[in-house]
Amino acid sequence: MMNSIEVIDLSKSFGHICALDKVSFSMGKGELFGLIGPDGAGKSTLFNILVTLLHPDTGTAIIDDYDLVKDYKKIRKVIGYLPENFSLYGDLSCRENLAFFARLYGEDIKKNYNLIYPIWKQLLRFENRKASALSGGMKQKLALCCALVHKPKILFLDEPTTGVDPVSRRELWDILKSLESENISVLVSTSYMEEATLCNRIGLIQKGNLLESNTPKQIQNNFKGYLIALQTNQVYQLLNELESFTAAKDYYAAGQHVNVVLHCLEDEIKLREFLKKTVIKINKINLIQPTIEDCFIQLMKKID
């Protein structure tokens, strides 16, 4: 089997709300795959299904060659899971939590100590501290140790960097990338678009729809049109003016810029002429490469 995960037309609804709509994708062995999307996009629902905590309405998945429904007990033995919310025992110390999860999987901490040591060494001075007293970043590192203590074949991490400081975020991603050498497949979700480029491949998800699945570079290459960044201190005034610029394929605010998508590069001349007729002061006009966020915005508008 070449893939760790095969997701086939998974759908899930809660009443009249469709959380997942025929989602399909695959993840290779040893791959770091990122599921990228805003809050409410369906990421946690998908994770809960794949770790066998929630039953899909339709569709299925193959996890490490096991059927999602028929073999759920076997799947639980080969995966590690770090949920979105801190789920360790706050009244136990760091070491007690680690020992508990090792016993839960029938493992000895010493057996896979080399795997978790790069993370655990940062917790050694806190090993007797209650888990509830740790900082956000340290809580996530402890949770990751507990999820890895049995050396799973597949690791699921649901928004592990939410609420974590920038330094701890970078350290966490360095750890995830290092797991490739251990042949551990990693499926991670995040709402931070800039983290997409740290993955081997990504899936962009919104309103329960998987918009596209590919390498970050290929998704950027698939962007339709030419992207012009207009730097201005009058963002909202410029957005109002652009309503009458018919040559724009799309436009939207991006920090202190307004990004304008043009059908062809020749339309930049039309854009410059249009801007001269307004009272808006434009500080810079640059042709830029689209980011993952630009691609996400473009793809998202196809389902709106």
Summary tags:
30% strand; 304 residues; 2 domains; 4-stranded antiparallel beta sheet; 6-stranded mixed beta sheet; alpha/beta; Alpha-Beta Plaits; Rossmann fold; single chain; 14 strands
Structure, described:
With 304 residues, this protein is of the alpha/beta class. It folds into two domains: 3-220, Rossmann fold (3-Layer(aba) Sandwich), CATH 3.40.50.300; 224-300, Alpha-Beta Plaits. Helix content is 30%, strand content 30%. The chain has ten helices and 14 strands. It has helices at 43-50, 72-78, 94-104, 113-120, 136-148, 166-178, 216-221, 235-241, 267-276, 292-300; strands spanning 3-14, 17-28, 32-36, 58-63, 66-67, 79-82, 154-158, 185-190, 201-206, 209-214, 226-232, 248-254, 257-262, 282-288. The strands form three sheets. Strands 6-7-8-3-9-10 form a six-stranded mixed beta sheet, with helices on both faces. The radius of gyration is 23 Å and the shape is elongated. The chain starts with a strand and ends with a helix. 37% of the residues are buried.
